[in-house]
Amino acid sequence: MSGTFISFEGPDGAGKTSALHAITAALQPILGDRLAVTREPGGNAISESIRAIILDRANTAMDYRTEALLYAAARRQHLAETILPALAADQLVLCDRYVDSSVAYQGAGRQIGEQAVAQMNQFATDGLLPNLTIYFDVPAEVGLQRIQAHRDPQQVDRLDVEKTAFHDRVRAAYLRLQAANPQRIKLIDATQTPDQVVAAALTLIKQTASGYFTAGA
């Protein structure tokens, strides 16, 4: 693969998706069609259909392992249909969430086992990990306050409405992942201003994907 794969991770309310939108706006004029921006679960028709099932607040009966398997299934299709072709075409791929989300949310948050979820996703991804993962870190209570204050009620999903203890477990798992993988996962303090967060993320992206940028870009 000649492209570069960068994932964005963080607990709910960390602002990673907003940062990704700002970063996309900054990079699109520079990179043009060499930039591919996508999300998980989703990124193509089949994976988006699975996303709708996973996040539907009406699906309260969904078993936690079913949820984890659905995420892995959506990820496999996303990888096969979207990410791998983009990397083969030498694109810079920015993805909103990837495997680390499943380990943190289903493995730790749902308490079904971080290692078990990691192994499931090892199969789903055939071991493909990003060149860089940018982890946007905020305490759970800060993220939840942001969701309550700013998110459209129609966009609040099954995971957003979990109790604080769930989100505390998610954040703790992310911090463990970052500590165990410091070369791949870089932490940004997402309690900073949005401009500071975006600037820090852009610096990491340009360091990792330097070949896509001319001097001074």
From TrEMBL:
Gene Ontology MF terms: ATP binding; dTMP kinase activity
Annotated catalysed reactions: dTMP + ATP = dTDP + ADP
Any matching Pfam family: Thymidylate_kin
Enzyme Commission number(s) of this protein: 2.7.4.9
Entry GO CC: cytosol
Gene3D superfamilies assigned to the protein according to its UniProt record, in alphabetical order: P-loop containing nucleotide triphosphate hydrolases (3.40.50.300)
Positions of the Thymidylate kinase-like domain: 8-199
Xref: CDD domains: TMPK
Annotated function: Phosphorylation of dTMP to form dTDP in both de novo and salvage pathways of dTTP synthesis.
HAMAP family: Thymidylate_kinase (MF_00165)
Name this polypeptide is given: Thymidylate kinase
Species for this entry: Levilactobacillus acidifarinae DSM 19394 = JCM 15949
